[in-house]
Every structure is written in C-alpha cells, then in structure tokens.
Design brief:
Chain lengths: ~110, ~110
C-alpha cells in the first residue's frame, strides 16, 4: 500500500513570487508520481509526471517537480506565479497494484 | 478524443433513494476508476476496472455501492438507500493499459442527499 502526505493545506502567495508545494510519499514498492491541478469548478488535470529517467520534470506552464528517492519527496515548484495559477494541487502515486492514491491537496492562492 | 464524460453533472436526491451515475471513458482506454471527493479532501479511491473485470474495490465502500462495466466500455456506479454522508463529488477516470499511464478525469457528478 502507498500513501501521500501534502504538508500544507493552503499556500497564499503574491503574484510573481516563487512557490513550493510539498509532497512526501510512502510505499513499499516502486511508484510513479504525478501532480494534478484542479481549477475552480473544473475537473482534475494532469500537470506533470515522473516515470523514470531525469529526476527533474517540467510542465508546459512553468511548474517543475523533483523526485527525491532518498527523501521520498516530489515537491512542486514555480519560480514566479501568476494569478491564473490559483487552484488546488494534488500529488498522487501509483504502484504495481494500479491504485492511484492522492494526497489531501494544497490550495494555492495567488494574490495581486 | 472527447475526454471522459460523466452524467449527470448534478444529482439531488432524498435520503433512502437509489441513484445511478454513468461514466463514458476515452474510447481506447481499458482502465476505468471511480473516486469520491469531499470538500477539502483529495480524491478517495472507490473501485477499479480493467476492461470489464472489477479488480479492486475499496474496503471503505459499503455494500450499498456497486459498480459495473458490462462490456468494458462505459461504467455505472449505483448507490442504494442513499445517506447524507454520501453527498460528495463522484469522479470517473480512465487510462491506457500501462500502470504508468496517467489517468484522465471527467468533470464529476455532484451528489447532494437531502
């Protein structure tokens, strides 16, 4: 079985400031890692994924996440946020049991 | 690719009534999942299908919940004798065969039990 801990339930930041959303996971087997984003009144959308290879993965809208196996972390970062980044962000893991497990989410609020 | 479609978008029902939700996955996807999401929480796994076979069901799911995927295409989730605690957003997702293939989510069905 696996589990995901998102350490911050809410993160308020000002526009153009950097942000880091923290995610730690626990699993007895190898896992694949994902970040999903949920904009207000919309469904979940895949933001980025770590499957193998380079531990740093990037999205098309400037987010990046780094897989750290020793610390079992997959933190999400963006060097400069926009108002439009306001959303809830979910970290998720999946293992050989095909069960995608989510964290409780972090609400990112970008203020002008 | 029209995405994952869920119907209805909203359902209001009285306690004790039965409800059924439908999910149409992306056509070539053979994995299909149901999740439940309540306010302030992450999506909670309910059940998973590989084609028409239901391979896993959450132990949190009571006997009032049942899901089917009769021909390996669309799926239905039925809740019998609804309770107020069943009020939530019910999400469907589908994915390709590989375990590392990302899941694509529908917009969900919001259930309100009065």
């Amino acid at each position: 079985a696996q589990s995901v801990t998102q350490l911050d339930s809410q993160v308020p930041v000002f526009e153009e400031a950097p942000v880091e959303l923290r995610c730690n996971y626990s699993s007895s087997v190898s896992v694949y890692l994902f970040w999903y984003v949920q904009y207000p009144n919309q469904g979940l959308q895949l933001l980025l994924k770590y499957l193998s290879g380079s531990t740093l993965v990037e999205s098309i809208n400037g987010f990046e996440a780094e897989f750290n196996k020793s610390q079992t972390s997959f933190h999400l970062r963006k060097p400069s946020v926009h108002i439009s980044d306001t959303a809830e962000y979910f970290c998720a893991v999946i293992g050989s049991n095909y069960k995608l497990t989510f964290g409780k989410g972090t609400l990112l609020t970008v203020n002008p | 690719d029209t995405g994952v479609s869920q119907d209805p978008r909203h359902k209001i029902t009285k306690r004790g009534q039965n409800v059924t939700f439908r999910c149409d996955p992306i056509s070539e996807h053979n994995r299909l999942y149901w999740y439940r999401q309540t306010l302030g929480q992450g999506p909670e796994f309910l059940t998973y299908f590989q084609n028409e076979a239901q391979l896993e069901k959450s132990r949190l799911l009571s006997d009032r919940f049942s899901a089917e995927r009769p021909k390996g295409s669309f799926s239905t989730l039925e809740i019998q004798r609804t309770e107020q605690g069943d009020s939530a957003m019910y999400l469907c997702a589908s994915g390709d065969q590989g375990v590392n293939s990302p899941l694509h989510f529908g917009n969900g069905t919001r259930l309100t039990v009065t």
